[in-house]
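Structure, all two chains, one model.
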Amino acid sequence: MESQEPNVTKSPLMYSNRVPVKTILEGSTSDADTGFIGMTVVVGGWVRSSKEVRKEPVSPPSPSSSPQMAAGAAPLGTKDVSCVEILQSRIPFFRTIIRVLGGSASSPAVRQKLESLIAKPPPPSTFFLQINDGSSVSSLKVVIDSAIVPVLAGQILPTGTCVLAQGVLEKPSADEKQTIELKVEKILHVGTVEQDKYPLSRKRLPLDSLRDYPHIRPRTTTVASVTRIRSSLDFATHTFFQNHGFLHVQVPIITTTDPEGFCEKFQVTTLLGEPSKKEASIGVSDADGVSLETIKAAIKEKSSLVEQLERTDSNREVLAAALQDLRKTNELAKQVETREKSKPVTAVKPDLVNFNADFFGQQSYLTVSGRLHLESYACALGHVYSFGPRFQAKKIESTKHVAEMWTVEAEMAFSQLEDAMKCAEDYFKFLCRWILDKCSDDMEFISKRINKTVAHRLEYMASSSYDKISYKESVEILRKATDKAFETQLQWGVPLTDEHLSYLVDDHYKRPVIIYDYPKAVKPFYVRLNDDGKTVAAFEMVIPQIGTVVTGSQSEERFDILNTRIKEFDLSKDQYEWYLDLRRHGTVEHSGFSLGFDLMVLLSTGLTDVRDVIPFTRSHGKANS
Amino acid sequence: MESQEPNVTKSPLMYSNRVPVKTILEGSTSDADTGFIGMTVVVGGWVRSSKEVRKEPVSPPSPSSSPQMAAGAAPLGTKDVSCVEILQSRIPFFRTIIRVLGGSASSPAVRQKLESLIAKPPPPSTFFLQINDGSSVSSLKVVIDSAIVPVLAGQILPTGTCVLAQGVLEKPSADEKQTIELKVEKILHVGTVEQDKYPLSRKRLPLDSLRDYPHIRPRTTTVASVTRIRSSLDFATHTFFQNHGFLHVQVPIITTTDPEGFCEKFQVTTLLGEPSKKEASIGVSDADGVSLETIKAAIKEKSSLVEQLERTDSNREVLAAALQDLRKTNELAKQVETREKSKPVTAVKPDLVNFNADFFGQQSYLTVSGRLHLESYACALGHVYSFGPRFQAKKIESTKHVAEMWTVEAEMAFSQLEDAMKCAEDYFKFLCRWILDKCSDDMEFISKRINKTVAHRLEYMASSSYDKISYKESVEILRKATDKAFETQLQWGVPLTDEHLSYLVDDHYKRPVIIYDYPKAVKPFYVRLNDDGKTVAAFEMVIPQIGTVVTGSQSEERFDILNTRIKEFDLSKDQYEWYLDLRRHGTVEHSGFSLGFDLMVLLSTGLTDVRDVIPFTRSHGKANS
């Protein structure tokens, strides 16, 4: 980057000379002052849209008369320095051209190309670019007069081109919508686009097509808004919990404890080796080696048997049989060899794997939930929360679940089911209010382009009270629903499906509902058994159009009952000894909940598929970066 | 929990009736008012220490005269309600006893036990407990008069016992250090301890022994302090970046891209199956099945060959040989069977595994670094950061590295090496200052008990300026170091080892140093090549007594050079196509860095081993929860 002249306005966003577009636009809407009008600033961003307006042909200006040549340039007319050399040494834009043309400036071919460009300057034009740098929904209008700043239209106009430019902020002519624009004096950098390969060259690609380009899609207005809202919800989460005396605990991602008992999990291993070129190849195990070698030895044996038969002059029949046998054994050897060399392993029975030799000396998984680990900190420090990625190896495609999702978990000692419900509701409302307060520009964009009702819904959810009904009551309501035929026939004990929940919140209550006291069989083993012996102290917070966003519970603090529940769920007790310790020593009533963070982003943005709100989605068959 | 009387002071920590110890202690040190003295509150926590003081024997008071019986109790002397029944129905403490004695109150055995307890009350004592709830380094003194609140000493005195009690806050007698204590009127819950099994029954277990009890150790003062400092640094991180216009991006944990090129990685798979009892067993693959079956078929063949030989009246020698052959093949079959049944797979050559059948249809890993993914968001939205777990499958034990560590990564578009160095330094100083400002109690404890110099060092690091030297300069300094003989002989191009770095910051500069412009071979492929063609725009921030805490770089924004570097590193180009897209379309100068969060906690707490500051450490052979 060029060193800046002293009068360039410094950026409030540090660690870069540029001024964010947001700062400029917000400054210019202030009635109190004239904002940034008249200031010289550096602005960087990517072209969202552009147009070129041809000027009436005039005699082309000499390139050396452009303003950036004025300060410190070699005196005009110096004969021993070629025009090209002056340009090379002074104007970063031309350096960019040289780079783009594919060579160093000193190569004769490039020099020729460059001279041909300069010899025939394009007809003068004005380029109007809408530049966006991700700081705001809105873009800044950037005006480049090719008579003043030489530029190749084909290079700077395409959508996605990166431009870093210095100029003066001016008030546009009265008929413009925008209140400020940048009149460019100097272009500091251009990052071109290969238009035929660039996925965003086509206008308004639908969201599902954008999923194939997770690394490019944040350049769209929608995904940029989603990212800003997501980041804001993230900070809101930490703010809420830290302000309420919760400590953040980073629970482990790799675990040997299964917190749910009925989830498909990913295994973490180093047994499958790496196709690394730098490492010594991880050999076939001894056991594997033996089998092939032993068979080869057997063949050798058999060959000698055949020889022996031949020597002893046995009848042809026996010899033929022996030869056939040898051939078969050879075939067997080939089969085993083929299997070991090319037929790949598609599943290894876990009983056959020596997990003692794995990195952790035992089978280990990606965590499904951090709540069990979090409990150990709650049972020492009171109020704790965690916020991190959780994993489920579900193969079914869904708009609400993918393999890797971020989850907020909270756990509170000396608290009961109602406390967890209250905390979850307050936290959820806090998030809704936060988005309305802090992301008004993005919400405006969403209302216009994605979903008109989101802001209204967030406002309603932030301010209304939520109905609390027991599972039993919800079953009664659903059984009375004569206007709706459900796929799953409902009776007490059956898990509520998406269509049941949708009926309750979308049709019946028309607002968020908290359902509590579930049948014990449909909730994890650690949920506290109620006095009826049939239900457990679990709850779910169900949100219209989304479904369950929060699941929570009071944990079983009684050692004997927890122990029984582990047996009932047919879980390996060894795995839970550490967890039982929390009841063995200084047990305490405690409760907590998990919030699906990606679902929270979904409902805040009015989108309908989590794959559009997660930066790099991982789902069955899909993890391409 | 019992419903509270209306005069109980409500907790400022919501979602629990209890008042945190910190609130009480801070309220009582205020000079402006008398704090909480005289108020009735509920306090919960775990016993840190205790003593029992026997009173002079007096005539034992009738249990029914205890104060908690006064309000709403059945009139004294009612004959048809036994004393035990009144106690059962009114006093939660006795319900706890009943629970602890292992039965329901109605069982005759329990009733007998309980009556025997009441019949012979223990001699009156005063119990003094120091109760800690994790909100503060300090504990609250809790005083229980057994004459007023009947309690079993053996049950409530052991370290680690959980107590939830209601009482009045009083000023202790003048000779006490503490300014406030709780005079208990009612015990709401007791969670007992199995003393012989409780790891913290032994006083002051060293930190390395505590590592075996990650679920219990947050109950120690040291690990509780570490947790509070860690949580505070966490919030400081989000505060710093959000205040500087960075967006938080949750980069993926599961990845198919290797960001370093020379790290040992964990594989994520579903091929190894699960030993789940609920799922259909994942079968041995066809290939595996074939081998044993085929051998069995071969044995059958051979048996018939032997029969044939017997029938054809061959000579004994041939028959014996054939029998021997059969025996050998049988042996082979047994070997294969044994291998498949009990000899476990210890390593599978990756070439042999069909990753098309794996969950993601290809080999996938736990991420080593999120910077590559983060770049794609920087190249759209400007300033971004991520904060999450990163993984390396290094088998070497170390006090500075384990398998799962949390890392903060920042990436800035339109920025260069110096910008990243400046941002990293500011962020680091912000963290140091934050800890000094927000965690003064914990820092005081650390100064007293762990490390006297930490606060001073944090103060110094927050306020001093850091030397910036090139790798070349650092090599020159080290080569001139005549007072030190290094294990690795230094010459340009060699990576700096821990002992080199230690010499530079601990002996030579005696303060943090930033080293930049490293030889290109010792840094990842994506670091920007300097004009000398030999060095790259990387830097490391090295901290006295800790080592490298931050690594950063300007990324290579030039397509051709990046492409060449990928080839030089012998990396699979396919894997990096998406990453190259960021240079193909609208490329931009950008830089960033990673901070090892666990190391930051280490230097803030004065501890020396990361395994003491990570909640649940994962390292080679160790992941027991």
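The first strand of chain A starts at residue 40 and ends at 54.
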